[in-house]
Amino acid sequence: YHVTLKRVQIQQAASKGARWLGIERDQLPPDHTVSQHETCKIRSIKAGTLEKLVENLLTAFGDNDFNYINIFLSTYRGFATTKEVLELILDRYGNLEISNCEDDRSQNSTENKTVLRTAIASILRAWLDQCSEDFREPPDYLCLQKLLAYLTRVMPGSVLEGRAQNLLEQFQKQEVMNGGIHDTLANEEKLETENSEDFSSFAEDFVAEQLTYMDAELFKRLVPYHCLGSIWSQRSKKENNHLALTIRATIAQFNAVTQCVIRTILNDKELKTQQRAKIIEKWIDIAHECRILKNFSSLRAIVSALQSNSIYRLKKCWASVAKDSMLMFEELSEIFSDRDNYLISRELLMREGTSKFANLDSSVKENQKRTQRRLQLQKDMGIMQGTVPYLGTFLTDLTMLDAALQNYVEVGFHKKMYEFEVIAQIKLLQSSCNSYCMTSDRRFIQWFRKQPELTEEER
Q1: Residues 163, 165, 171, 174, Cα dihedral to 10°
Q2: Ras-GEF domain: from which residue to which, for each copy (predicted)?
């Protein structure tokens, strides 16, 4: 354990003068009372075996340490499986309350059982509410079935039993429907249009909205624990092809946006320099619209594509790009500068506002003011929107955390606290994506999905 000292207020007493007058504390305004404090010891887990960490879940509930419970549930998949944790809770502690030992008749035993049942129910409720994806194990859903059997036996007719039953039915229904954004998009691809669409026919704000729609849908479906370094770092092994599918889908979308930018600029060999420059300007405007929509995923993808060697080497085209567009591109590129561990993009993402660069050209500052006015106008009109982050930053942080603080015999729970902070940020941003009010456009989805990837030689 870590043991720290914390100064806490225990009560407010009447001042010496008030006591001399015989006036009680509750008869005086706050400015006539004196706060009394004491120093107490705060104990927090530093490291422990899986069995002890699970045991501490019940202790934490009794101590009202809900922070420990949240950290454990958000990060345990890095060192244990759902099956292992559930068995420890139900088999080791859940069966104690239905055992038939001689002490069961005592009042203390009855009270202890009630406390234990309440603690287990609260932990299971938090597990189902916060990390329901842990129980998505098609086709048999063995862990969820085991949990349901326990609740039916020990807590029949309870709200928790109904929650578990509804979750099982929801998973089974989604499995039958083969739900998911990629299935929806695949169905939309099958719908043929009479005329093939051209990139020039799509308005910049329209393209940004469609990219944001796709990115937000994928990000909302992301399973946060897939981002843990101990899980994501294992993706390259051949037997782990099924691992972290929600992250793979997000990365595939990011790469598709990057390839789309490169293809629209390079694919047509007959384009003149000015025409190619106009396409570059169009993508810069689209990137700016993504910035307005707080879609940092597609924004980063577009900027990365324009900075790639195959596009950067087009010196004549870049020389023909309008000055305002170039200044805008420099501003957007600065957001993802790697200085100070990507400090600018991190701060920008967390406060969801526009960044400020004191050393930039006045025209760039004017672009920032324009962006700020657009964001403020949306706020004044009551238009709610979310934020789609660039996931690579979180993956890098969690992978570095895992590599820097390796586990040995015991699980280093102090590392889990840092991981939980990152996971909590991801969940917060996922929740914000529900504020987007967008619909997919069949024409654009079909055009976007049909863009072929250029080979190295074609670039």
Answers
A1: -100
A2: 203-459
